[in-house]
Amino acid sequence: MRFVFHIGRYFMFLNRVFKRPEKFKIFVKQFFKEAEKLGTNSVGIVVIISVFMGAVITLQTAYNLDMAFIPKYTIGLAARESVLLEFSSTIVGLIMAGKVGSNIASEIGSMKVTEQIDAIEIMGINSSSFLVLPKILALVFMMPLLTVISMGIGISGGWIAGFVSGEVPSTDYIYGIQYSFKPFYIVYSVIKSAVFGFLISSISSYQGYYVEGGSLEVGIASTKAVVVSSVQIILFNLLLTQLLLA
Amino acid sequence: MIEVRNVNKTFNKKQILFDVSAKFEAGQTNLIIGQSGHGKTVLLKSIVGLHSIDSGEIIYGNKVFSGMSFTDQKEIRQQIGMLFQGSALFDSLTVEENVKFPLDMFSNKSTEEKLDRVNFCLNRVNLENVNHLYPSEISGGMQKRVAIARAIALNPKYLFCDEPNSGLDPKTSIVIDNLIYEITKEYGITTIMNTHDMNSVMAIGEKIIYIHSGRKLWEGNKEDILVAKEKELNDFVFASELFKRIKRNV
Description:
B: 250 residues, Rossmann fold
């Protein structure tokens, strides 16, 4: 019953969020501010995770395919497919749910418990749209960019690991990552990451917006935001894979 | 003028307000007093539309505010300034940006005109050289004054104050009370203030309503309150030793 209540309230919340901004000039300013805060400031963590993720995938694949009749380029091919199809979008999504999701929930939650949201409402401003819409659009816009960055860095990480460890010759790896390349896999991953961006920002904002109490409840909302966003990412990953690749 | 007619409010099946009616005149400091947890803040937040009421009417001028949608309420809301218990300044904005916020949202003034207005409002609340500081960098009393400056930035017709003196020392409380009183008179604003501070009541209480257990038990002014007969009101007003002494001398 509680689940149904939250689903209903979440959609009612989204209905308030997706309203015409009060002042377009201010909305654009906020959008870029959020894009920087949520997206650009996350490039560092995405790069670090991607480089190691690509390296580990390549080395694990290399150790498992260490057979004479399997050509070395399949390691590059497997690394590319894993990074493009799954790791760059889903792992980056999960990382962002932790980093950005908790940030959004605690920011909005703190504003709620200190009556800053009431102050916005009193002025006749739709607080949910004013605070949340720029965050949602900024993350939907930035997540695909971060995913594309992650793809490039992840594949490069694999190449460095293979080359440095001596497990995969550079030429084989480069041949492998070009072999039988399907550009749609990038589109698939970009679509997934945009959906994940929407889920993270909207769920976390929802958790923060309905906080009642004090700092303890803000912390709980922050944790809930990460957990619920992560579960939804996993769920939608399956759903979108079935829809887009079947 | 604001009128509250037979307002009832329930939270989670618990009734908080019982048939509350009152009139709050323009150009006057109207005080809602009562013990903590007896419904003052719920009444104030119901009047400004932050809580929807179960029954009754809230009337601004001649418009029934309580029945309007959020969009329809917009016009009236833009004439409202509110001072919250904890100031409710935006943490991420400087003092100047906080006061400029309503101007950015609702006025078509140039940046220079807006800054002039910001400086005027900050000067009006006796604040100087704080424009570029963040709320966390100024004292509680200064935060309250910035909140007043933000509340008056758009020349409101209605000013609401929810326990503006909570957490402030007596001297700063007097400064805030006097500011609210002066601004009310200067601009002919309808001011409604929640308080349980008897010093504020005696200083600026032109019209006072006493709320007890969600019901309006008494209505009068600061002179009347000292000679009122209601037991609950007397228990509240003369709770402190200082006011007991005053009572003995009245």
